[in-house]
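Example record

The entry below shows one chain as it appears in the dataset: sequence first, then structure tokens.
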Amino acid sequence: MPSPTPQKTASSRPTLRDIARDAGVAVTTASVVVRGDLSVVIRPETRQRILDAAQRLGYRRNLAASSLRSGKSNFIGLLVQALDVPMTLLKLREIDHAILARGYRALLRNTDGDPELEAQYLHEFADHLVAGLVLIQGGSAATSAGLVPLQERGVPILTLEPLPGGEVDCITVDRRFGAALAIRHLLELGHRRFVFLHGDLRTDLVRQRLAGYRETLTAGGIPVKHQLLWPADGQGFADGYRAASALLANGCQATAWFCNNDEVAIGAMRAIQEAGRRIPQDLSVVGFDDIPVAAYAPVPLTTIAQPVSDIAAATTERLFARISGKAVAGQPLMRRLEPRLMVRSSTGMAPVPDYIRHQTEAF
């Protein structure tokens, strides 16, 4: 009669030495593979043999003990203020993939805009001894204050939006340049009356768009009275719809609409069509971001595409240069990557004014 299988205890858990013996490799080689370090060159068949041995023996890495020994973990903290923003999700996915490719893991926390929750998560990141931190949507002066414990421990911190009072690296998008691209495109189509459906003008990312909008129109000879600003109270489809409905009800004569993001633009296009106006024959609309739905809207949206892959690559390159010590401490990096114009069906030649059309028809 076979003897019963002994119950595993903490002392009988497999170790790195067990894995190395089973796979026929050195303990240091086994350690490199099980901690997911891809910076060390190991033959694929050897790496797979070690992983198979770890799975067969039921090895589980003690992350807490590893962190205490080394003073850091292989986790990178990712902090967001809202997960319901399509562009945020696109950036998160790309950055997560880039982190994994470096042999690290992402530790994601979403604050939902709650300052107390943000402070709690920042403490949590410090307690987990994260190797680095990325602020996906920037933050406030309170965020900067909450980063101090991490900075005191030497944790590299990078933000994707300028952080008020924060002495941290920033990899972001040149929104002023993006707005200028949009407006130049509309000017080339002959438009002379413009409106900007904007977000919160207290934020840097909206102020940058506004600067590009106004500077380009002024350089193009468009008087200020034809550079209308109109607020969209939020950043979603419904906000764009409500803002556009109110704008049209106020008798807006603009033929070129520049919107703060694609969701606002798509919501605005619905209101425009419901009002009996045609896109782009009567009105041209440009968004910002190039979220996936933009190309598949009822009228495919012309927009300014954020370079998401480039942002993820630049972010991880800078962050891991800080982690490895290749980027020495000093003046924080501010880098703005240039977006690009994606022309689709929502923009067209400016409509001919009635008085000119009537004069032409008379001949």
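Notes for this example: The first strand starts at residue 75 and ends at 80. Confidence is low (pLDDT under 50) at residues 1-11, 67-71, 355-363.
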